[in-house]
Structure formats: C-alpha cells, structure tokens
Design goal:
single chain, about 200 residues, alpha+beta, five-stranded mixed beta sheet, 10 strands, elongated
Length: about 200
C-alpha cells in the first residue's frame, strides 16, 4: 500500500524518476520543485473516496490504511482529472469501505443470534458456541440446524481480524459467558472491508 508520490521515493507518474526526494515530476527536466503540500493535485485511484484531490494530507487520508490504496501525484488539476478518467476506463478505480468494528453492549442482547424468538434454546446439553468477535456475534447450537442462522461458523469468523469462537457443553454456560462479555463490551461485530470497482459510464 503506497502513494505514488515522489515524496515517498517511488516513481512519479510524469518522469518515472525513482530518487527525486521531494522534487517534482520535472526534477532533472526543468529543475522545478514540488508545490507546497496543500497545493498539490492527486488522482486517488484506490481509496475511501476515489477521485481528484488537492492537498497531500487530504490525499493520504483518502488512501492510507486502505488495502491496496493508491494515489498518484499530478502536476495540475487537468492532469489529475485525465489520469483518474483513464483509471476509470481501465477498471482500476476502486471505492473501499474499510473494516468497521462495533462493540456491543447489554442493550443489544435481544437482537443477537441465540436470544431472538426463532433461535434454538434447546437441548441444554449439546455443543454450543459463543462467537465473541465475528460478522454476527452470538450463541449458536452446533448441529444440522446451524445453517438456519444464515452463516456457517467458518464464514462468521473467517477473514475477520481477531475472530473468536468459544465452545461450551451446555447452553447455560454459553449464555453466562456471553452475557458477561457483553456487559464489559467484549462482544464485537465486524463489518469487513467492502470494495467496489467504479464504472466509467457517462465519463469521457
């Protein structure tokens, strides 16, 4: 994950120089230096809000922390617009909504799997699991009916950073532990990163 800015010592889009160290795309050609950071133009191709952005800090907030985030320094706004439109046509512009983690509390109990009206409450002695960190935290009965929850145990936590499952031999033990964790905000719902390739319809 990197910005294609000459400040980072990587090739800029104009001259592909690799060691210009804070000099602009023309360094070695005209000798011009980069404009002040807040006056620079960028084409953010992969980020939270892809598009043409002015200001280095603004661009970095857009792509930094995003998987595969990319922003390209351009000498002026028209160049940035041209670069971004080209990226759109190539199918390279991607809108990324980073992972969101929501800590749940006791007030959420009735809405969670294992506590809703239609969820299984028996048998007492069986394999019950607490998903404390996952896409749908809750208490689940592990048997042939698990698919009725809409998620397999694997898909609930797979790809989730810190995904956590605890097994119990009785529902009462699972409920006790889940409610304890819920009361101290240790139950976390994770909305994993969403990526959408932007379309170039109507863009020339």
């Amino acid at each position: 994950m990197s910005s294609q800015d000459s400040d980072k010592g990587v090739p800029c889009i104009e001259c592909q120089c690799k060691d210009c160290q804070c000099h602009c795309h023309c360094s070695g050609a005209t000798g011009d230096e980069l404009p002040p950071p807040d006056e620079r133009w960028y084409s953010v191709v992969v980020g939270r809000s892809p598009g043409v952005v002015q200001g280095q800090d603004h661009a970095e907030r857009n792509w930094r922390g995003v998987s595969g985030g990319a922003a390209f320094y351009c000498p002026d706004r028209p160049s940035a617009e041209q670069h971004f439109v080209s990226a759109l046509h190539r199918g390279e512009a991607v809108h990324v909504i980073p992972e969101v983690r929501i800590r749940l509390g006791s007030q959420d109990r009735a809405t969670l799997p294992g506590f809703r009206v239609h969820d299984p409450y028996s048998p007492e002695n069986a394999t019950w699991v607490v998903v404390s960190v996952g896409r749908e935290p809750g208490i689940y009965l592990i048997d042939s009916s698990y698919s009725g929850y809409g998620l397999t145990l694997t898909s609930n936590v797979n790809g989730v950073s810190g995904g956590h499952v605890i097994k119990f031999k009785s529902r009462s033990a699972a409920v006790e532990e889940f409610e304890r964790m819920l009361s101290v905000s240790l139950i976390v719902r994770v909305v994993t990163e969403v990526r959408a390739v932007l379309m170039s319809d109507g863009v020339e």
